[in-house]
Design a protein that fits this description.
By secondary structure, this protein is α+β, with helices and mostly antiparallel strands. It has helices spanning 3-10, 61-78, 120-136, 155-167, 172-181, 183-190, 198-204, 245-256, 274-288, 294-298, 300-320, 335-352, 354-361, and strands at residues 18-25, 32-39, 45-52, 102-106, 111-112, 211-213, 222-225, 231-234, 241-243. A hairpin with a 6-residue loop joins strand 1 (18-25) and strand 2. The model has no long low-confidence stretch (mean pLDDT 95).
Length: 362
């Protein structure tokens, strides 16, 4: 959209000042996101996040917004924590959306985020941020939230989708080619079917507590103070839902335990690093130590393996289905297969180091 059109969208919300500048934020893969700068009468600048929500990925946008409002308001009122709140529309729409998909969110100044880092202290801070999110919402009843993406971290469900992809008869010629290229990865996943139900079955049986979970705790979803490099808060709360603390820990480890890119082409560069795991885990446990149960603590290494395995399954399933879900780069051959290979290689290495991971937890 042109700048003036984006300004007109922004004016539908209770922003402070007159829009003067807008720039696209390219790091997200789902929503269209912009930083909006507004000039106040006193000459100061106030910034906001202006977003067009992808309602294909989030068809129940009302539930998404309700969850976000409840969680951000609870954090502000009960823990004095920093979080990016939602700005109301000028006519008071509930949820606060314009045209069914546009929203404005508070911009937290003097912060930055990282796709990856070699700074181990940043990983400690990342673990603190994820643990603090759990700590801040410990008193919130997770049952009050709506499951906006059904079975999002249900690894059994993801495995069932994978099995359906194997059995599908559509586009048989293309599928045969893809199956041959992914033969090793398919077998790797099949051999681990028995681990897919570990967390979801513990939740269903009440052996671990249902908690509020962010569900997408990758490093780039954590804001850090630009000066001190201390963690400030988690952002991108679209996937906040009821779930397990283990989901947030596992997702955080998945994206923090290696310097390799998610679509790394050289698997020799995909290296699980104990020091990275240890830093994130120590930060996380620093915050949740009084709240985490014995069963949850024992399952932390398995959660790291399982969340990584789940993402590998999802990339592999999408590859077998013809790249229907994840956006791929046409310049990267077999992009989703490369993503799957990277995730499954991390799974293999974490399985080998599970005993060391367990020692760090206690």
């Amino acid at each position: 959209m042109e700048e003036e059109a984006l300004f007109e969208v922004a004016k539908q919300f209770q922003i402070n000042g007159t829009p003067t500048k807008v720039k696209k934020i390219k790091s997200g893969h789902i929503n269209n996101t912009y930083q909006l700068d507004c000039i106040q009468q006193n000459g100061n600048t106030t910034s906001y996040i202006l977003q067009k929500v992808n309602t294909h990925v989030f068809p129940n946008i009302k539930a998404v917004m309700d969850n976000m409002q409840k969680v951000t308001q609870y954090i502000k009122q009960n823990s004095s924590g920093v979080t990016a709140g939602i700005i109301n529309t000028i006519v008071g729409n509930q949820p606060p959306l314009w045209n069914g998909c546009w929203r404005v969110i508070e911009f937290i100044p003097n912060t930055t985020s990282f796709e990856t880092t070699t700074d181990i202290n940043l990983l400690l801070e990342a673990g603190i941020a994820v643990g603090k999110f759990q700590k801040q919402l410990d008193g919130f009843k997770a049952e009050e939230l709506i499951e906006t993406i059904v079975k999002f971290h249900n690894t059994k469900y993801r495995f069932n989708n994978f099995e359906q992809a194997i059995q599908s008869k559509q586009n048989q010629n293309e599928r045969e080619k893809r199956f041959k290229l992914a033969e090793k990865e398919i077998q790797f996943v099949i051999e681990r079917k028995k681990i897919t139900g570990i967390i979801i079955e513990m939740l269903e049986k009440g052996k671990i507590p249902l908690r509020v979970t962010h569900n997408d705790t990758k490093l780039s979803n954590i804001l850090f103070d630009k000066t001190m490099k201390k963690a400030v808060c988690l952002i991108d709360l679209d996937t906040v839902m009821p779930g397990s603390m283990l989901y947030d820990f596992g997702e955080g480890i998945r994206t923090s335990c290696t310097l390799a890119k998610e679509d790394e082409e050289d698997l020799n560069s995909v290296i699980w690093e104990k020091k990275r795991y240890e830093a994130f885990t120590n930060g996380f446990l620093q915050e949740v130590n009084e709240k985490i149960t014995k069963q949850e603590r024992e399952l932390l290494p398995q959660a790291a393996i399982l969340m990584t395995f789940e993402n590998g399954i999802r990339f592999l399933t999408d590859y077998l289905n013809g790249d229907m879900y994840f956006r791929t780069n046409p310049e990267i051959s077999e992009h989703n297969l490369k993503r799957a290979k990277t995730q499954l290689e991390l799974v293999r290495q974490m399985e080998q180091n599970k005993t060391e991971m367990m020692k760090i937890n206690f």
